[in-house]
Write a structure and sequence with these properties.
This protein is mainly α and 130 residues long. The chain folds into 2 domains: 71 residues, no CATH class; 59 residues. The protein is built from 5 helices and no strands. It starts with a helix and ends with a helix.
């Protein structure tokens, strides 16, 4: 188990390094790197916001990896879909957004499929315990 965790950490680190190099190369080749540096020098608080965003994004990724490793992908899907549902409901309430009938049908289908997968998973666990 420790080896798998180490492998995921190395894989995540490698992916982030490749992404960073690709992003830096794209900025350099497009000539926008100087624009970015100039913008940061004029607005130094933006650097702080970027650091905070990076730290919270990284923390979120660790939480996602841990949740999937510990509880499985179905549980993670339920958590994320429920979070999205609460965001939609809150947005509808706070900002007075309206949902179409297609949105309600789509939400019902998604939660029905997730509920069915959860039911199957629990049924398999009960069968395995017998």
């Amino acid at each position: 188990m420790l080896l798998v965790s180490f492998y995921l950490s190395v894989l995540t680190y490698f992916t982030l390094c490749v992404y960073s190099i690709t992003k830096f190369s794209a900025l350099l080749l497009s000539g926008e790197l100087t624009t970015v540096i100039e913008f940061i020098s004029i607005n130094p608080t933006v650097l702080w916001y970027n650091v905070v965003t990076a730290v919270t994004s990284t923390t979120g990724q660790f939480a996602i990896f841990y949740t999937i490793k510990r509880f499985g992908p179905i549980t993670f899907t339920i958590i994320m879909t429920t979070r999205q549902l609460f965001s939609i409901v809150l947005s509808n309430y706070v900002f007075n957004h309206k949902m179409s009938i297609q949105s309600y049908i789509g939400s019902t289908i998604v939660f029905s499929v997730i509920g069915y997968c959860l039911h199957i998973k629990m049924k398999e666990k009960r069968t395995a315990l017998k």
